[in-house]
Amino acid sequence: xxxxxxxxxxxxxxxxxxxxxxxxxxxxxxxxxxPKVGIIFETPEEATKFYKxxxxxxxxxxxxxxxxxxxxxxxxxxxxxTREGRWKSKISPTLKTNPSAGLNCPARIxxxxxxxxxxxTISKVALNHSHPCCPDQVKMLKQHRELRMFVRRTIExxxxxxxxxxxxxxxxxxxxxxxxxxxxxxxxxxxYIIREVQNISEEDNAKEFGKCLCIWNIMKKNPNKLNGxxxxxxxxxxxxxxx
Length: 243
Fold this sequence. Notes:
- Residues 49-134 form the FAR1 domain.
- This is FAR1 domain-containing protein.
- By secondary structure, the chain is α+β, with helices and mostly antiparallel strands.
- The protein folds into two domains: 15-141, no CATH class; 149-239, no CATH class.
- The protein has helices at 44-58, 149-160, 165-176, 186-197, 202-221, 232-239, and strands at 15-18, 21-24, 40-41, 62-70, 73-81, 108-114, 119-126.
- The longest helix is centred in the last third of the chain and has 20 residues, at 202-221.
- The protein is elongated and about 60 Å long.
- The N and C termini lie far apart (48 Å).
């Protein structure tokens, strides 16, 4: 079994542009949370959760890159940093605002089942990243965003009172002092309202979004054409931060 670039994670001298703010990166993780060759798990899900917890402490996010099966049974999995891979963006570098583009990051773990004992183990580890990590901003990464119970109850209360989504989100920002202090973004609030409060399926939500997008495009090209449409103000406010 191999260890690939098994070095201490330390980016204390680097800075990374994230969410329009320059933050100082630092990665000091307790040794018990650091992936090592030979660590044992009862299930592949435990291994995935272990690496996810490590990524949250270290300032990055993870995804399952590859799974090998024997029938219905999983034999091994490759779990990587979400910024692995490289592609050529169709968007001009001067216009691109997404900070999560692939950087061919090598950080990963490889786990496989030990068939003779029926447990899982880490057989390969790569801790080095091709980019700085941001522990202070990790909760804004999609994998680590979370709506706590208090936030959910507040969203439900505001929805019953017919308070607009944007006002609900801004109330959380005001209470926290900054959107950087929240563990979620406005889109997470919207999705919670649609799927949990209004109980609308993801498929139906996509159809409704497509309808709003179509009307939004008409409004941009012919702003006076839909002024009589009673829902045009709501759509304009909803779509202005999406498109």
